[in-house]
Amino acid sequence: MTTTATGFAQLTGTYTLDPAHTRIGFVARHAMVTKVRGAFNEFEGTAVLDGENPAASTAAVTIKTASIDTRNAQRDEHLRSNDFLAMETYPEITFTSTAIRQTGTTDFEVTGDLTIKGVTNSVTVPFTYEGAATDPFGNVRVGFEGSVTINRKDYGVTWNAALETGGVLVSDKIVLEFEVSAVKNA
């Protein structure tokens, strides 16, 4: 089954994120000259897709902050600490949709409440529907990709260090990246 952009009706149902084929990542500027990329390796999420009325769809994701991975153990420990994500006090980052709007043939805006370190703000993530297929095991899969830039200070993540040359060690703006593969529940 391959679904064209106009064939959303057949996708109606409840889906579970497939962590083995989904990436929830981020990008931050480091020392104002390069980018550090990372991801969260442990998360769970569901989406209820309404193919006839996309605005009636919903999505929710829970991310384990301890699963942060930037491929550098020392940096990851610092990110888990009270300087950044304070994982002991705030073990989860959550996102719960509040509105979904179709903006183009395969484009959607998913607005929701993003909670980091106990602070909740509304964010709108533009997503592109990448398609649907039935995998070799008979599961219906859908794919979506999106990204949004947030200011980490809006969530109380304020630690930084000044550079001798001016500027700071860690950018305030963080790009959140979502490459989602979800499997339709039986």
Automatic annotation (TrEMBL):
- Indicate what this protein is called per its UniProt record: Polyisoprenoid-binding protein YceI
Read off the InterPro entries from this record. Lipid/polyisoprenoid-bd_YceI, TTHA0802/YceI-like_sf
Give start and end of each Lipid/polyisoprenoid-binding YceI-like domain.
Answer: 14-183
Q: Which family does it belong to?
A: Belongs to the UPF0312 family.
What species was this sequence derived from? Planomonospora venezuelensis
Q: Name one Pfam family in it.
A: YceI
SMART domains (UniProt xref): YceI
Going by the entry's taxonomy, the superkingdom of the source organism is recorded as Bacteria
